[in-house]
Hints:
This protein is α+β, with helices and mostly antiparallel strands and 299 residues long. The protein contains nine helices and nine strands. It comes from Microlunatus parietis. This is Aminoglycoside phosphotransferase (APT) family kinase protein.
Amino acid sequence: MSTDHPIEFRLSENPWAPTAVVEEINLRTASGLVLTGLADQVGGVSSAAFVAWPDGRQSALTRPRASLSSVELTATVLNEVRKQGLPVPAYQLVLDLHDGYVAVVQERLPGRHVEHLDQTTVAAFVAANDRFAGLLRRHPEVPPPPDFPTHGPGYGVFEDTIGGYGTRGRRLLARLLEVDSGRPLRMHGDDLVHTDYSPGNVLFDDSGQVSGIVDWNFGVARGDRHYALVGLPWGSIGRSTIKPAEQRAIDAVLGRLESVTLRSYQAHHAVHRVHRSITEGFARQRIEADLGFAEEIMS
């Protein structure tokens, strides 16, 4: 296999060369894929390339960091949900690559991203998430969002990462316990949860309705679908695409939750950002900023 491949996705947290991935897939599976283009979103956690099958089908190619077992579980769930008519991509090929990552060839869904949500698209955005209600009743094996660790005492892996960060980290976990009313919150529910649900991962048709919900690179999760709407203003994509009026519409949906539950959801979302910054080996300045943000959210 050739080693001379340009790294097209340099701005991604997960830089990769689609030409190399396509070459490896074809060598190992004889799929005959042809690279046809790159997605317009080249930053973030990962990015997508576009490929064509010999029969003319158009697909998207991603290279998530998730484990093979997690990706295979995601494929099982999304393929089942797709058959029920929901606008999620069917996974067509999953392959563990030689570099330890996983290649996913998935259905390329129609539609486009919008620069800003408006009254029509924000209503569609919320309604699409509501369609995930109760979809995982028969899938107890799907884990909750990683923001709610279930393994180990206390807050599980957070105890090692954040608790091991020093006095400030331990103080943050103690504050989280207070917000959780003295007992670590375990998320319950049987909704399908997209853990990176934002306008950047939703496609719309010309009428403003949702035609695709993409980028399941973090895997599927099981719990309360409302959690997918928490923290949207805190991310760069949410800040740039959701104006105050549309955010108020989303907040009205979150108003369905009890106030103590919403506060815990917000706290867990912020604390998980700290955990991820530590595990990803981000610069100390980034970790300290995320710590400060979590402290502010729980103040």
